[in-house]
User: Fold 6-aminohexanoate hydrolase from Roseovarius atlanticus.
Amino acid sequence: MDDYRAHDMTSLAGLVAKGEVTPDDLLDTALARMHAVNPALNAVVHDYSDTARRMIADGLPKGPLTGVPFLLKDMGAESTRHPASLGSRLLANTSYRMNSTIYDRLEASGLVTFGRTAAPEGGVGAATEAAVYGGPTRNPWDLDRTPGGSSGGSGAAVAAGIVPGAHGSDGGGSIRIPASNCGLVGFKPTRAMVPDGPYAGEGWAGMAIEGFLTRSLRDTALLLDIVCGPDLGAPYVAPPMPCTFLESLDRPNGPLRIALCDTTLTGDAVHPECQAAVQDAAALLHDMGHHVTQARPTADTTGMMHAWTKIVACGTASWVRAALAKQNRELRQGDIEGVARGAVAYAQTISGADYLDAVETVHAYGRQMAAFFVDHDILLTPTMAEPPAAIGRFAHDTEDYVAYRVGENGIFAYSPYTAAFNATGQPAVSLPLCRGTDGLPIGIHLASRFGADTALMSLCADIERARPWFDQIPAMPGIDT
Assistant:
């Protein structure tokens, strides 16, 4: 299919529905691109094309995305058809006895899942360089840069045109960071909007949620409409929405009160190109009729990040312990990487009371941030404090887990915005509005109040109409001219 990259998921599904292409045609094209670009990227790390062929031959469900090729992150979206390694040698090729609810809903939409994409070990990190995959995952815009993490493989695969959209998950920015680095849409919905069951009640004390990376906003809206809603036995549910995500794309959103923060949330300077990008976005929003004022939340972001770091360390220790118990053995050298070893060691210093205090700190932060959104509808920031980092800068070889997260040159300094809204549970999105002087994408981050997902989506649709981004894609040597 010569014009494959000219279509988003919605458009490809329309071609299948009209009989202009077949699911096998689309899978052939996706696999051809994968074989052409993946050796340079290391983005798709499990090839389930034979499974995909059988799914097509057996007859696909009739849904809104029937026949569209799709990729799952190598973490979450558990499926009996698609074993996963979760970025870890300790968990390599883990199989599942039942499907997750989110996967069941995706499969029922008619998607053809043919692989899984790279993630850092345990989902910890803003780069994707897991040892289990034999090397780093690279950014299609610049192979010496990271696509981000933890959904870095999905970001790279979508940006490179293997698929127009892919599954991801976000516990501290893991969808929005790759979206920013790869020039994509990355929308993190309100806590509990997307189901976690039956394998989890919540991830990282409610801070983690699944979602998608796409090239078009309407694909993100459609995918969210497909999967949203509580699953059986969910511990809590998100507030009801006034309309579907797709309906929100055409809903008016009268002048909004937008707070521009062009520093970090703690007031530190960011890279000049990131600052210029968010100021440019603010000017665009002003021209669109919104009320833009300079403002920064006073919530204790530094305290929240230290609490986040404790919670994630305990989460890492939990999955490592569970894996070893299942295999009935002790931890061996080489089972896990340095950051995970450091997280496990740090977790051993955290008591049960310390853990609950950390959760309370995160909850208090949510209340502090909610107060800011009484007077503001949207908080506008860059997605990242810097352009995409060089490969190796956030490799997992260090065992100083705390410094890796919150040290002077750690991930929090590089990504100082995204985890805030995992802590609060609010919806937030990275949009590919800008490019740096070197041509690399620079994402713009918008967050709204808890439960206001469709209002945020509506604003994003207006922005996409005002400054379309779909055709801004990297050319892959040897396949694109």
